[in-house]
Amino acid sequence: MNAVIATGGHSPDSPQAFTDQKRPGPVPGTHDLLVKVAAAGMNPVDTKVFARLDQGAQRVLGWDAVGEVVAVGPEAGKFRPGQRVFYAGDLTRDGSNAEYQLVDARITALAPSNLSDAEAAVMPLTSITAWEGVFDRLGFVAAPGANQSRSLLVIGGAGGVGSMIIQLAAWAGITVAATAGRPNSAQWCKELGASVVIGRDNIPARLKEAGLPQTDAIFCTTHASDHWATMAEVIKPQGSVCLIDDPSGPLDITLFKPKCARIYWEFMFTRSLFHTEDMERQGQILDAVARMVEAGTLRTTLADTLTGLSANTVRQAHLRQASETMVGKQVIVF
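-> structure tokens emitted (334 positions)
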């Protein structure tokens, strides 16, 4: 099969960073689906894993995909060949930058029938991250309009995860405030359902001006270290904070003590990494998201499309992601 191999120790713009290779086709294990990949999404995790590869180490990256099931393992549940599925995959296994990929059926769902391959492939990782963060970690109720008196600040609202947080929170009746650094980012957040959109500087003053000086919860998707003191200031007493990015250094957790605030980590690979007893919940989340997309409740966050699986398109996607200027998500259509 065709695959794009990432090699550690190189800058992403180097010809040695990504190369096209032929590899044997994988064989499904007990819980696996063998999927012929139609499109692969791009996420910050791709650039992070690439940056951490040891010199000369090689991996197939890619943790978002949509494709057709071509073979199933003996305990792969309800799936069968010919079905179109989408998933975020497993950090410990080969990714979706390949013609064929193995994925555990428990973290997979039927793709939304009303989306193209490109539109569907950008959704799994960010949807799971947003759903787990908003509902499993921060404790909001996952039902339409069920949180009418509660508020959420999304730091980094226009990115891939932020885009899904805003949509899910608005669906659940939460008053959403989001930060955005550029006019097009701000407009994007408003279109997705944010009630308040503010700049990224002087957040406490901007929230106060908007009539929302403190929020019940904060979902910080980016640069947690830079916003640490700000979050301690604007979180309500006994509120909750959810983090997903890696801090640049040690953080003073005592800033949150006076408000008795809860701090959660969200890492969507935890269930597959440790094969937790509730691993199948990710498949259930994706199924719920797919059905909400089909009902018109959620929309794809696709922004940019690259065509053809090749070292060149993967390189372009990495360089765009590393620029930190993405609004929404990008995808490679095979």
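The chain has ten helices and 16 strands.
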